[in-house]
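Supplementary notes (optional reading)

For those who missed the lab, this is the record we used. Protein: ATP synthase subunit a. Length: 244 residues.
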Amino acid sequence: MLAAYFDQFNIIRLITIQALFEDWPITFTNSSMMMVIAIMAILLLLKGDWLIPRRWQILMEIIYLNIRSVVRDNLGAPGEKYFPLVLSLFLYIGMLNILGLFPYIFTPTVHIVITFGLSLSILIGVILLGIIKFKWNFLSIFMPGGAPLALAFILVPIETLSYLSRALSLGLRLAANLTAGHLLFAIISGFTFTMLANGLFVLSLFPMLVMLFITILEMAVAIIQAYVFSLLTTIYLSDTIVLH
């Protein structure tokens, strides 16, 4: 039974293409398919230039203004160049999370490999941009200001580990929250189906109501987690503008 709950997280190979190197085949999985579908859905939502805005266009404009406000509040005018990145992250992660709420739909963001890959890429990008702008002075963020130089051999490793752990925490937070919600929903839905199969229609109303509540909660979590990921990315990008 426990294995059945985790079946929804299985990655299935749909297409396999043999590459030049025999040991490195190119595979198109259900995870890849959902990523492509998410990008196509975002492009369709962004396609709207009506004189009188429709509902989707109004929604996209609200998202646009809110994310731009987040970037401006945390990065100021110099950080406007990062706005397309932050907006793209929010839309992409949010769309993947929302699509994953539909039955039999694979959710790539429940896999730590994917979320950690995103967060690690962001951290590497921040470090490279910081070094490009501040040269090797960027490494001063690993030594707290005003700290005695004698403590450098202790503080630098601690600060370095703390800084690098951002990638793990950023990706793990997203995957863990979504995984917990999906598992809870799968367990309760399985319990409800068992009750219905045994003819306990009246008693099954309670878990149905719980499932409805969890569905609404999961929709909120899907958006909130995308927002948190984008917000933390914006905060991390501040290191490329001003050294702390």
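If you only remember one thing from this example: Helices lie at 2-5, 30-46, 55-75, 83-99, 112-134, 152-197, 205-237.
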